[in-house]
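User: Just a sanity check before I run the rest of the batch. Below are the structure tokens for the first item. I only need the designed sequence back.
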């Protein structure tokens, strides 16, 4: 197994190579508006750092968000194109799950029994999900959602929170833990563990949760009240 992990759902343009046992190399660049410029060079650099070639990659795993429309789409299209060109499978993993997994890897004992991941959704909102923490990992409860930070404060009060939402809206959230952005290494590691356990990974389909800000004028007139 040689997984190429890709995620562009947060401010990080992140790529990793995982051989089924561990991360061989990872490259991350923080820039919320230049995903398209950094992703392809990041793939080339990460494969070189791992001492592997394109031909050795056996599958691609990509973060499916939720995340902003443009950045998320770049990662998904790149992953699908790479996999199609190589004739290998492409899998999707929720980006919030990858962040929860990283927080669990870093300090499982310190998280307690519950964890929240909240990333920046702009418009003073967050993409968020709640997780049960157990010896097997961080297991998501329900589907990811988008909401105003203040609107979910009572639901998550006192729980450890990973992601930039914990920094941007510190007045609403509890103790900050874990990563601020997605790590492709954690994403690939989570996918490798699920595959090793015989789980079926999802498709590389995006979790947008809401319409894009930009759309053709005619379509905008149709959806506006």
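Assistant: Here's the designed sequence for the first item:
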């Amino acid at each position: 197994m040689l997984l190429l992990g890709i995620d562009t759902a947060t401010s990080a343009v992140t790529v990793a190579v995982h051989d089924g046992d561990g991360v061989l190399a990872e490259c991350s660049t923080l820039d919320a508006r230049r995903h398209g410029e950094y992703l392809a060079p990041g793939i080339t650099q990460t494969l070189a750092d791992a001492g592997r070639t394109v031909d050795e990659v056996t599958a691609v795993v990509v973060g499916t968000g939720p995340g902003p429309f443009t950045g998320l789409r770049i990662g998904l299209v790149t992953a699908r194109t790479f996999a199609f060109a190589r004739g290998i499978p492409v899998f999707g993993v929720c980006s919030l799950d990858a962040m929860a997994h990283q927080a669990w890897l870093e300090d499982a004992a310190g998280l307690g029994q519950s964890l929240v991941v909240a990333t920046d959704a702009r418009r003073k909102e967050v993409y968020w999900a709640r997780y049960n923490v157990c010896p097997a990992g961080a297991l998501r409860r329900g589907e990811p959602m988008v909401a105003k930070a203040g609107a979910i404060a009572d639901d998550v009060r006192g729980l450890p929170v990973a992601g930039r939402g914990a920094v941007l809206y510190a007045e609403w959230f509890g103790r900050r833990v874990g990563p601020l952005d997605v790590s492709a290494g954690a994403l690939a590691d989570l996918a490798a563990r699920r595959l090793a356990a015989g789980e079926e990974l999802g498709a590389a389909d995006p979790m947008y949760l809401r319409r894009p800000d930009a759309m053709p004028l005619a379509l905008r007139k149709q959806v506006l009240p």
